[in-house]
Design a protein that fits this description.
Elements lengths: L4 E3 L14 E6 L5 E7 L18 E6 L4 E8 L4 E4 L9 E11 L8 E10 L5 H4 L14 E4 L8 E4 L8 E7 L4 E7 L7 E5 L12 E10 L6 E10 L7
Length: about 240
């Protein structure tokens, strides 16, 4: 499989992804419990979710065997909670949700907004190579999705475009609470429609054990009929890579 690899440039001054509300999900300290929020700040509950909660009712769990199962999401007002019924042998897995918001009428002409939000759960650094990096071939992922390596450097992102033909992807990295650590961009491989972005030099001071979020953005369609897609994921940061 051929990948396009771009150098990641960490820049606190370039902001291709503007401040707005996005979906964020993470695994809580209580194993196999997932929290979903819709917020400007990564991972921070916001009551504005109440306007969309009845449209976001489940997530899909994809395991290493490419098995997929749905879990319900429970509305808690400013956040949603999902409980994953898997055991230790099911790790790694990806929990992923999706919302087609519909026309965003604050823009003219109003584009369609789509949100994908994911949580990566793993036990070992090698899970990236044997599972997450291979998700582009998963039959269970049909929407614009991002995954990231849980260690660094190098800091590695894979953006799965699914069936959409995109020209460019912007990616920003955040700590929980909304602190933006940097942004980059990449273009999909012509053969795989997969965007791979690596970096060996950027320095991130986040401590091991903290939650990191990646947010990807791409636009498809003509100017009068655009679809703007956002995809987020979260990992528990493991510190420097050893492999």
């Amino acid at each position: 499989m051929k990948f396009v690899t771009n150098s990641l440039i960490i820049s606190l001054f370039w902001m291709p992804i503007a401040s707005s509300h996005y979906f964020w999900a993470e695994e809580l300290e209580e194993d196999n419990v997932i929290e979903v929020v819709f917020s400007e700040q990564a991972g921070v509950p916001d009551p504005v979710l109440s306007h969309l909660a009845d449209r976001v009712t489940e997530m899909t769990i994809i395991t290493g065997n490419d098995d997929a199962m749905s879990i319900p999401l429970e509305n808690k007002g400013d956040h949603l909670i999902g409980r994953v019924d898997v055991d230790e042998s099911s790790s790694p897995y990806l929990a992923v949700g999706f919302l087609d918001y519909g026309p965003f009428r604050e823009m003219t002409p109003p584009p369609d907004l789509q949100y994908t939000f994911a949580v990566q759960v793993s036990e070992e650094e090698s899970d990236w190579t044997v599972f997450f990096e291979q998700l582009s071939s998963s039959s269970s992922l049909s929407h614009f999705t991002i995954v990231m390596k849980s260690c660094g450097p190098p800091y590695t992102f894979a953006v799965i475009a699914g069936d959409e033909k995109i020209q460019k992807v912007d990616v920003c990295l955040f700590e929980k609470g909304g602190l933006k650590l940097g942004c980059t961009s990449g273009k999909p491989d012509d053969d795989t429609n997969l965007v791979m972005i690596d970096d060996d030099e950027a320095i991130i001071t986040t401590a091991a054990g903290n939650t990191l979020y990646a947010l990807a953005n791409a636009t498809i369609g003509e100017p009068d009929s655009r679809t703007i897609m956002f995809a987020s994921t979260s990992v528990t940061f493991e510190g420097p890579c050893t492999e």
